[in-house]
UniProtKB/TrEMBL annotation:
This is Cytochrome B561. It comes from the Bacteria. Gene3D superfamilies: Transmembrane di-heme cytochromes, Chain C. Keywords: Cell membrane, Electron transport, Heme, Iron, Membrane, Metal-binding, Transmembrane, Transmembrane helix, Transport. The lineage of its organism: Bacteria, Pseudomonadati, Pseudomonadota, Gammaproteobacteria, Lysobacterales. InterPro entries: Cyt_b561_bac/Ni-Hgenase (IPR011577), Cytochrome_b561_oxidase (IPR052168), Di-haem_cyt_TM (IPR016174).
Length: 179
């Protein structure tokens, strides 16, 4: 079976691989970000991890969006209350927006601060925002605020997934977890 094939009631293989890979990456990024802000000793090393990992997440979310538009997700259970179906769809699009916004905000913030965006030795991204202390401050605040929003959204997503797995047992969790 190729990565675009999907058995009924399941996300395709590429969607599942991207979902779980990005879940690990995003959780790592959230904890790296918090530790970066709390530890002067670890900060330089963590920044060196945070930047390329953030850009990688930004690129993977574009691939994920492309895949989702080409291969729509399986339908939600017909007996799911309308407000839960609406919350599921809205939270998924919020997650996509945040996964895309966070790397762009980080890149813009570093550009505004005049910092190089080093992905690896010898390869830097070009600046995408003008050098400005005021813009840097605003973007840093936005990046921090949206990190909290992302963390809360991830927790709600995890809670909903466990609700579907353990309480409803309706196949929603399995559609992403198993083939």
């Amino acid at each position: 079976m190729n990565t675009t094939d999907r058995t009924p009631g399941h996300f395709n293989r590429l969607a599942r691989v991207l979902h779980w890979t990005m879940a690990v990456m995003i959780l790592a990024m959230l904890f790296i970000g918090v530790t970066m802000m709390a530890s002067l000793h670890l900060r330089p090393t963590l920044v060196d991890i945070h930047r390329p990992l953030g850009i990688t997440i930004g690129l993977l979310v574009l691939l994920r969006l492309y895949n989702r538009l080409r291969h729509p997700p399986p339908p939600l259970p017909a007996d799911l209350p309308w407000w839960q179906a609406l919350a599921a769809k809205a939270s998924h699009w919020l997650l996509y927006a945040l996964m895309l916004a966070m790397p762009l905000l980080g890149w813009s913030m570093l550009s505004a601060g005049g910092y190089p965006i080093v992905l690896w030795s010898g390869f830097n991204l070009p600046p995408i925002a003008p050098h400005s202390a005021a813009l840097y401050t605003a973007l840093r605040s936005a990046h921090s605020l949206l990190a909290y929003v992302l963390f809360a959204t991830v927790l709600m997503h995890l809670g909903a997934a466990l609700y579907h797995a353990w309480v409803r047992r309706d196949g929603v969790f399995e559609s992403m977890a198993k083939k």
